[in-house]
Amino acid sequence: MSPEHAGPGAAGGDPAGAAALRGLAAVDQVLREPAVAALLERYPRDVVVRAVRTVIDRLRREIIEGGREADAAGLTPAHLAPWVEQLVEAAVTPSLRRVINATGVVAHTNLGRSVLPAEALAAVATAGGFYTDLEIDLGGGERASRQRHVRDALCALTGAADALVVNNNAAAVLLALAATCRDGEVIVSRGELVEIGDGCRIPDILAESGARLVEVGTTNRTYLGDVERAWSERTRGVLRVHTSNYRIVGFTTQPAIDELVSFAHARGALVIDDLGSGALADLPLLAEEPAARESLRRGVDLVTFSGDKLLGGPQAGIVLGTATAVERLRTHPLARAVRIDKLNLAALDALLRLYLDPEGAVGRVPTLALLAQTREALVARAERLRTASVALALAPAQPAVGELAARLRRGRPGVLGYVHDGRLLLDVLAVRDDEVDELAAAVDAALAAG
To answer: Which end of the chain, N or C, is less surrounded by CB atoms within 10 Å?
Structure first.
């Protein structure tokens, strides 16, 4: 690129910028640099060449726009080589990295939520590494629904007449509303208009479904009378949303699910119950979570919940309900767009088989096993970490706590704790026994790094 065609900025009006552009190393020069030539022996030529071009193009753009000081010494092939190495390594290294979860949150959204049991991992390997009978009936040789792999287990576990699985719970709620309430009104208590996460809110899902939201009650108190006063000839359903990530306590009232069901059914409308996490088994560990079986027993038409929260499985949205209601979802055009993929389906199938023995599932499903740990077990693990490293609550003079947390995140594996009152805390609730030594080594390395 000649200086007169370089555009505005340093190259267009600054002689030093124009000179820098002329002195910027060419692609073939950088490729002959020993460190870059070594990359060509290890990686595909196209990958290395693209990295070289990217580095040069970035420097050229910064010089033209005046964002980089025109220093000829910083434009040589030798100076560009380390940047090329970084780009190549980033290109060939998988982006998804393992981390040690020392946050104390078992189903951590940003860390991938639930860790899958061994049976689910084996099922994923089979589904991903081989051809399977995903959508074929091997007996008759005809096409079949992928839903059949999990439908029977879900119905057996919950007493549902029918079941459907999609790619996540937000999709399950969206599909349920679109298939049953589009162009009508859906009544929701104001205290249940939650934000699910990442800015996704119940009102937004309702809007996308084609149904109109009708808010009733107040934040803390909603009565059946509020529902009755809001009812109209356009009402198609009532949506109840479990506020799984917060609670309103004290002066509160909500209509019982039996009341909502009786009231809605008498008027030809449906009740949809979004449980969020939900409980699939009758376990003391999950006593405070709404149970899918209980909602169905009380006459709810459609129940939705996540597969990757307290269930401890892969990302999935599970829909249970009456045969008529579920069939409306199954035949809706949106069902294809939100269907579950084969790997998550395989993992979910294997997970559900574990729940057929609820007590056994506590020991085999990592999410349940972590939540079921005794205080004594946690103390013993914390003591192991304390004696193997420096401390569980870190408040070093150097480096600063924020820098220490950053060093731990950047490690391999990365470590995530949380900062509180000027200290970096490492909670061992979700740290596996076989990760304690790694965590201790990571802490020591982060403290020692200059």
So the answer is: C
Tell me how far apart the alpha carbons of residues 199 and 214 are, in angstroms, rounded to a whole number: 20
d(CA 370, CA 430): 6
Rg over alpha carbons for the chain, rounded to the nearest Å, is: 28
Burial 388-404 (b: 16+ CB within 10 A, else e): ebeebebeeeeeebeeb
d(CA 384, CA 374): 16
| Whether 155 contacts 356, CB under 8 Å | no
Residues shown for the chain = 450
Average of per-residue pLDDT across 220-233: 96
1 pLDDT more than 70? no
Q: pLDDT by residue (tens digit) across 371-429? A: 999 999 999 999 998 888 755 787 877 788 999 999 999 999 999 999 998 899 999 99
**Euclidean distance between CA atoms 279 and 197, whole angstroms:** 20
Q: Which residue blocks in 93-167 are alpha helix, DSSP H?
A: 118-129, 148-158
Burial class of residue 320, CB neighbours in 10 A (0-12, 13-18, 19+): buried
The kind and range of the H/E element at 85 are helix 77-92
